[in-house]
Amino acid sequence: MNSLEYEVDLLSRLVEVDTESVSKKGYEKCAQIIVEEAERNSLDVEIIDGEKGAKDGLSRPNVIVTLDSGSDVTLLVESHFDIVPPGSNWKYPPFKLTVENDRAYGRGSADNKSGIAAALGAMRRLKNESLDINMKLVAGVDEEIGGKYGVDYVMTDAGLKGDAALVVDAGIERLFLGASGILWGKVEVGGKQGHAGYPFKSLNAIDEATRLIRALNSYKETVERKESNLNAPPEAPREKVWGRFSVTMIRGGEKENVIPGTCEFRFDRRLHPEEQLEEAKEELKEHFNKAVSEAGCKASLEITNSLPGYHTSKSHPFVKTVSEKIAELRGETPLFAAELGGNDGSFFAKHNIPVVCYGTIRADTRFHGLDEFVYLEDIEIVRNLILSLGKAPRESIAVRA
Asked: Domain of 278: which CATH number?
């Protein structure tokens, strides 16, 4: 087994920085670690700051590490270093990497700082090789909140180019050829505020919102009947990826003795990879208006975030190449599937770049949960896959006319 000393040391330093995606306070410090590591290994590096698009004073340093062989073909390898908040009651400290029984614990250890460690571990080994392709690591930010000023800004506004993309923000159980789209929304329901001792003089907005949520059950059933041609991950209860709708937040009321005059709830709608985003938006609005009429309430809908799903054809040469390399490393050809969640691959697919996903986030690694961890074995597998792809002939990465 090849040593993982370098990768574990780098992962440890990355995990120690709290890069929670709302405050973004640790973004610059974490980005600097990646920059210094690239320079230490004689790799070209630059920062594309999404704040130039956001214009809100919050730095979003997307780090681009380049291994330039002079080729006209470039493979993009993408990972992200923003995280979700750790929560409380961890057994292991969330911001100190703890290695125990072939696992490394810490927030972001699996999702997705180990992807950065694996990629840099591969690129430093490839630095002195004679290669047929260029390689760029895109270490992005804001993935956990949609990626608008992360990889989307890098690709759409800054114009980064590439011929194929490997997204390591994924599991290792399958070779993922697509990911689900996302529609997030906010619904505000109106009522009439009043004294709780005199409810007959008021209109309880929480009651109104509850009726509306029930009326949206028919929409949820409609969504769940939609099904992809791509298989779901192995832990899923259905064979194929399907549409999903979940009410995920509800807020209403100020005090026990006050009937609330407003209530807000938010939802998450997941599109299967082949669904069209604009069609899904129109369908949502149609069902929402119908549900409001059925519930007899006053309510407004706002779509707060959206991200299209994507899928890469099983017959694409890049898919075949990655599949073959995984088979060589693991002794078996990987099965194909699509992600139930969304990821930054959408922003590459948006520019007609073929995307596959294969990474260190196994289903049982507690990503987004307490005591998140990554298997050390998986860091090695992903690093060696990137190594193998870096040595591949250019025709196996991109087909030129």
From this structure: 3.30.70.360
